[in-house]
Amino acid sequence: MDLDNLAAVAQAMVADNKGLLAADESTGTITKRFDTINVESTEDSRRDYRELLFRAAGIGEYISGVILYDETIRQSAADGTRFVDLMAKQGIIPGIKVDAGAKPLAGSDNETVTEGLDGLRDRVKEYVDLGAKFAKWRAVIKIGDEMPTGYAIHANAHALARYAKICQEGGLVPIVEPEVLMDGDHDIHNCQMITEETLNCVFGELYAQEVALEGMILKPNMVISGLDAKNRADFNKVADETVAALMRCVPAAVPGIMFLSGGQSEIDATMHLNVMNTNYKNLPWKLSYSYGRALQASALKAWLGDSGKVKLAQGALMLRASLNSAACAAEYKGESTQ
Ligand code: 13P
What we know:
- This protein is an alpha/beta fold.
- It has one domain: TIM Barrel (Alpha-Beta Barrel), CATH 3.20.20.
- The strands form two sheets. An eight-stranded parallel beta sheet has the order 8-7-6-3-2-1-10-9.
- The longest helix has 21 residues.
- The radius of gyration is 19 Å and the shape is globular.
- The structure holds 1,3-dihydroxyacetonephosphate.
- The site of 1,3-dihydroxyacetonephosphate has 10 residues, from α11.
């Protein structure tokens, strides 16, 4: 394992005021997103949409890396330029989702375990040859009636560590993503307890399986009220509870924490990141973003599958990327004053 190289890539991913664009929606997920704008999901429409994102002029000023899906890392733009080469021109590091999705967990009615370990070593090799420098694996933890079980947390943490170790051996920086879902009416305290239990279990497994913390990135949920909670916690409370949970559970050797947005609105995701970076200085790790929906929602709405609206959509993406980068520096001043 070349730890110096892994650590250098991890540091580049969390370079000052930069974050990741999660554009690794599986075919099923991007089809759901396209359904909301009445665009048919075909190989070409998916290509056109991703091309729009990666060609946004100057996006590399804000985005250090893009997480791709298997189809996308093999795709080329309409003019034949490989997507990974387009990214290189903007100074963007390509990454790849390597998990095969959350699947029903044996012995459980509602919980899942993320699959994709079979054959992973060979796929990592192939993705390295295709130009990837980092990888992502998302584990899903649900809060609800008698959930999560310790069994589900442990099964997912074990798989995350196995994935991370295989990636590091093969030369990819693993993004370790244990997502405690926002779905439900639970309060923020409940989310904090479950998030801490999950992170403690994940870091226990990473330690047991000798994953090098300097050569990985953590992608957690924020500690936040459930979407249907009666009294949702405000921005300061989310910042306080999130930072407290991370301080208790994440070793200082981890270079960066790049949050998922998880169903937050674009503005909430930016606000929360900004408040954390404003109220907490000198944390042991960088706090940045690796957003999917919170970077793409308005771009997708602006595009509508219309080639005449590409510039508009790119403008919407650039706006979100610039505002989230400002939030990394604690310099987000709201939507209208930028
Ligand atoms: P969201 O920011 O839309 O939650 O997506 C991030 C991601 O990569 C989920 O795995």
